[in-house]
């Protein structure tokens, strides 16, 4: 049997060759004048497979039909067909086409083109009933929406098969609006490229036919860099965009791709160009050649205009295989760590959801840069304190307006490197913040000595649309505590190790550009821990640090490095060999947390730990947890705004020792 050929792994706008020989959309005998199609055969379909709508005797051939009103309702169960390419119910009308005069042992290809989502299967016997095992050669229902289904089969000894065109209609839905289709049947010319080696002008196999090209990566001339999807030949690119780039139209295919220089640290490569969507297959190609393995970030950015156009960015290797893609953001960003030496292509295109081409061009900026940061704590310069979506350190945003209370400079504290100094005990500082872009943050720095307790208070004017969130991080960017749902927002941390801590203020809600005013203040008191119980005593907004250093009086995070066995004390999953720690955020009695296991039932926990443990059901993964005596020992549901009385969070429910989501 001929195997079903997989198309090269490219996005749809790069798959430019879809033509199949013998399929011209007409009824009757298609391209072969000798093909014999009896369109009047057995018009009564009450007997199902044994009463076809037509009989085809010669190939290639086409037949145009309509499942609506066809009458039959056949069904083939899952697992019955020898070659099953997905399987869905078929609770709708069917139409049957009988194929006679097939050469036994020869492969044939059936293609179904329809404006609706249809399926088909091929059976070898006419029993007048639904097919059973041994009778169904192939079933395909792989495409959704406007359907082009393609499948191959080997003709049986009888030389006759029955093609059943089918569809699914839900009992609660109206009948299929358009059941028309065109069925094409051909004897394949090829199975793979090597089968076309004797045809130098058509060396590639596409949809079982030898063609000049099936993708633009098979076109090697800048004068003809595009594979035409109708003729499967290499043709010149389009030049209908207004205005268009100087490199058009050669850059419509990889062979004419514009070259991009390899960037260096602190010196990105930037290209300014424009693109339209006329034709819909319009693409701008760029090529970059790497001499060695490199960490790179590619970014595509454009200014939104009327109609909110969307551009897409795809990274493709020298063989035409997709490495990475971005389709829904602005900017579209591709972060590529350890990109191997070789030739790569960047493909820029404009997406048109309604399928209508637009000749007016959209200006865009394409950049390639060396990775500089993973987050803003990697950016050490006050003039470029923000880690951008392209993983480069950049200046803060200037989008916020009415931000004059924020030291008169809306970008002054957008990153840790430019954080505003916050003096403990000083009067509250006036500030303001918006959330455009969504990454907008205000940072403050406060310094403590070993054992200090730190309280951060952020208050803001009540506004149904405004909600400010506060986090406190250490100098490495590790979160030490946070709060979401109160006003004022108060984060209380105890027994801190000496150092500088950063307060991050953000605006949660619908995007606004007018900054919302707030006040921020810090207060410290001296302290000394004497046990892990001290580290766990204050838990409402600080993340548990389970190692009390008796020498410094400070609570630090436990450093288990995934080496701790079951029942060892822990404060995070990476302490444990099992990768599971029983600690839940903001829980009381956090000092009881131990390395444990994932679970589905409490019996697994008692088997692992003995009595005193239950299987808790938090959010995604279940794990064993020391039996609770109250809700606060279960930890917080930080995503819920329904707060427990007097608490900054909605806590899980303690039910007979087990922690559960409070429904």
Largest sheet at a glance?
Answer: 7 strands, mixed
Mean pLDDT: 86
User: End-to-end span in angstroms?
Assistant: 56 Å
Low-confidence stretches: 1-46, 404-410
Shape: globular
**CATH class type of the largest domain:** Mainly Beta
Structural category:
mainly beta
Which fold name is given in CATH as the topology of the largest domain? Answer: Jelly Rolls
Enumerate how many helices there are, as a single number.
Answer: 2
When the domains are counted, the total is 4
Number of beta-strand segments: 43
Which tags fit this structure?
2% helix, globular, Jelly Rolls, 43 strands, 4 domains, disordered N terminus, mainly beta, 663 residues, single chain, 34% strand
Describe what you observe in this structure:
The chain is mainly beta. Helix content is 2%, strand content 34%. The chain is built from two helices and 43 strands. The strands form 13 sheets. Strands 1-2-5-10-7-8-4 form a seven-stranded mixed beta sheet, with no helix packed on it. A five-stranded mixed beta sheet has the order 16-18-23-20-21, with no helix packed on it. Strands 27-29-34-31-32 form a five-stranded mixed beta sheet, with no helix packed on it. The longest helix has 8 residues, at 602-609. The protein starts with 36 loop residues before the first strand and ends with a strand. The model is unreliable at 1-46 and 404-410 (pLDDT under 50).
């Amino acid at each position: 049997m001929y195997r079903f050929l997989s198309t090269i792994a490219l996005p749809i706008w790069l798959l430019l060759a879809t033509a199949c020989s013998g399929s011209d959309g007409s009824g009757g005998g298609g391209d072969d004048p000798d093909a014999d199609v009896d369109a009047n055969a057995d018009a009564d379909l009450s007997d199902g497979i044994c009463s076809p709508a037509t009989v085809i005797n010669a190939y290639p051939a086409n037949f145009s039909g309509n499942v609506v009103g066809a009458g039959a309702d056949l069904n083939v169960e899952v697992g019955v067909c020898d070659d099953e390419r997905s399987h869905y119910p078929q609770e709708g009308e069917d139409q049957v086409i009988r194929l006679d005069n097939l050469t036994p042992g020869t492969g044939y290809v059936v293609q179904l083109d329809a404006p609706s989502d249809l399926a088909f299967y091929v059976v070898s016997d006419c029993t007048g009933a639904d097919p059973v095992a041994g009778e169904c050669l192939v079933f395909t229902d792989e495409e959704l929406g406007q359907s082009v289904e393609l499948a191959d089969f080997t003709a049986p000894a009888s030389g006759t098969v029955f093609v059943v065109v089918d569809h699914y209609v839900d009992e609660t839905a109206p009948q299929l609006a358009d059941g028309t289709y065109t069925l094409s049947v051909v004897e394949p010319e090829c199975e793979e490229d090597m089968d076309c080696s004797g045809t130098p002008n058509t060396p590639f196999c596409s949809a079982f036919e030898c063609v000049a090209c099936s993708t633009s990566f098979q076109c090697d001339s800048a004068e003809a860099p595009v594979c035409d999807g109708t003729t499967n030949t290499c043709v010149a690119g389009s030049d209908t965009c207004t205005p268009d780039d100087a490199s058009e139209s050669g850059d419509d295919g990889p062979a004419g791709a514009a070259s991009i220089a390899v960037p260096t640290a602190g010196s990105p490569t930037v290209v300014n160009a424009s693109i339209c969507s006329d034709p819909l297959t319009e693409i701008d190609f760029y090529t970059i050649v790497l001499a060695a393995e490199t960490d790179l970030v590619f970014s595509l950015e454009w200014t939104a205009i009327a109609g909110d156009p969307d551009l897409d960015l795809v990274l493709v290797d020298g063989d035409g295989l997709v490495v990475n893609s971005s389709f829904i953001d602005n900017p579209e960003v591709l972060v590529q760590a350890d990109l191997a030496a070789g030739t790569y292509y960047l493909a820029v295109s404009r997406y048109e959801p309604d399928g209508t081409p637009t000749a007016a061009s959209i200006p865009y900026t394409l950049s390639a840069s060396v990775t500089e940061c993973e987050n803003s704590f990697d950016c050490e310069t006050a003039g470029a304190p923000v880690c951008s979506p392209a993983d480069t350190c950049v200046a803060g945003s200037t989008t916020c307006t009415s931000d004059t209370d924020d030291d008169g400079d809306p970008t002054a504290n957008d990153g840790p490197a430019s954080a505003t100094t916050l003096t403990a005990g000083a009067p509250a500082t006036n500030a303001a913040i918006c959330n455009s872009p969504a990454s907008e943050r205000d940072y403050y720095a406060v310094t403590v000595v070993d054992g200090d307790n730190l309280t951060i208070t952020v208050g803001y004017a009540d506004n149904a649309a405004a909600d400010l969130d506060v986090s406190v991080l250490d100098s490495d960017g590790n979160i030490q505590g946070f709060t979401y749902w109160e006003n004022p927002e108060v984060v209380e941390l105890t027994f801190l190790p000496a150092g500088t801590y950063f307060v991050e203020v953000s605006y949660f809600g619908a995007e606004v550009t007018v900054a919302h005013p707030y006040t921020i203040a810090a207060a410290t008191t001296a302290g000394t821990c004497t046990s892990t119980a001290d580290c766990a005593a204050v838990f409402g907004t600080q993340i548990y640090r389970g190692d009390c250093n008796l020498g410094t009086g400070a609570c630090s995070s436990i450093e288990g490095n995934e080496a701790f066995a079951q029942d060892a004390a822990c404060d995070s999953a990476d302490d444990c060999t099992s990768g599971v720690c029983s600690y839940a955020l903001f829980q009381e009695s956090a000092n009881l947390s131990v390395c444990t296991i994932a679970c589905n039932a409490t019996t697994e926990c008692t088997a692992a730990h003995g009595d005193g443990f239950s299987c808790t059901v938090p959010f995604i993964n279940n794990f064993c947890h020391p039996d609770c005596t109250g809700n606060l020992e279960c930890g917080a549901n930080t995503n819920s705004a329904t707060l427990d009385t007097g608490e900054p969070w909605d806590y899980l429910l303690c039910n007979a020792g087990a922690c559960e989501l409070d429904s």
